Task: structure prediction
Amino acid sequence: MDKIVSLAKRRGFVFQSSEIYGGLNGCWDYGPLGVELLRNIKDAWWQSMTYREDIEGIDAAILMHPRVWEASGHVSNFTDPMVDCKECKARFRADQVDEAMCGSPAYKGRKAAKCQAEGKFTEARQFNLMFKTFVGPVEDEGAVVYLRPETAQGIFVNFLNVASGSRQKPPFGIAQIGKAFRNEINTKNFLFRTREFEQMEMQFFVKPGTDVEWFEKWRAERMQWFIDLGMTKEKLQWHQHEPDKLAHYAKDAYDIEYQFPFGWGEIEGIHNRSDFDLSQHEKYSGKSMQYFDQESKEKYTPYIIETSAGASRSFMAFLVDAYNEEEAPTADGKSEIRTVLKFHPRLAPTKAAVFPLVNRDGMPEIARNLEADLRPHMRVFYDDGGAVGRRYRRQDEVGTPFCITIDSETLTNQTVTVRERDSMNQERVAISQVRNYLSVSIRS
Ligand code: GAP
Result:
């Protein structure tokens, strides 16, 4: 992880938030390459979800009526048990003390469990993870609102608006990508558990009785999505929630877990939420949330199958999965270790780099023309600095799938070399065909 975090900072994927002020725990900034990778992940998800007949997209407000969070159960249930160390004032999630280290510099390397055994900890008390703020100028209880801890509720409360506005009827889904906030007691593992993060959630509304079948369909589809985007199959697994560990809303739940360097961790949850959410909103709002089927004249409260992926956690999983160190030949026939991010070309922040082999003989002009031709269609990078081998390494390290070199042969036959990142194979392609060649290769 340390190597990946360091590369992420050095090459402009992820920076610590407010770093010059010492950072803000649990918050991260995406740099120029990180924001491209994140956007490409979100675009791939958005396309897979909404470029189909039976799913509509929305973008709901982050701040919602406070009753939403009473209905959803977050005000009463969205808590973690917390303990404090009376001596060093460190705070721990009570169920994670065994994995934690003591917070005091005086006891560096000491297990928190040891301090607990010595009676230094308070009793566990429940801590609500929602961030509170106020609407309007008066900071009293009547003005309290919450930063949403999940995007899902914005979908549930809009279910009937979307159904009627888009003339959809169950089975159909609503997809949304957006920020969510949780005041996690302990943030950890880079982007894995943060206080501000993005979710990609889709709620699929189905007729009761068809929910188990849809649950299985969505489980299969979501696992395949990660595999199709190049994630190593062997590093993905299912984790089914035990009946006594199910969230208060869930009838059945599976997590898609990725094998991170620190162990298996959830990247997406697929939940059969039954009719819990719509029934709760009906009860708390006093408005019917039932669906009336005009054809069959049936009225019912749909069941919901939820697919809830973390965009930030998926980002981290794609980054970790892409990271490779491997032996590569050098120009003088020796070998060296190259660091390469083997992103699926669709996700790669930069799709192609263009190099003039040397800065003379008209090569830079041809390279600049090619760059200008590609730029409206994809993110490209121009580099004329240093030996071409060094330039390849710099692009490998940020996962650019194709490097195009203009060389002396280009001057005679208008072809260029296109070098593919993973195989390092080079092919000659006519300049006039480069754009088409790249477009096809990136899509596949
Ligand atoms: N609407 C259901 C829901 O929010 P969840 O399992 O609490 O379910 C879904 O969260 C996904 O959101 C997780 O699989 C994870 O990818 C992401 N996520 C949750 N908490 C997170 C955090 N503190 N930091 C980063 N990602 C988080």
Summary: The chain has a mean pLDDT of 95. Residues 150, 152, 182, 184, 193-194, 197, 199, 201, 266-269, 306, 308-310, 312-313 surround glycyl-adenosine-5'-phosphate (CB under 6 Å). The chain is about 30% helix and 30% strand. Residues 51 and 411 are 44 Å apart (CA to CA).
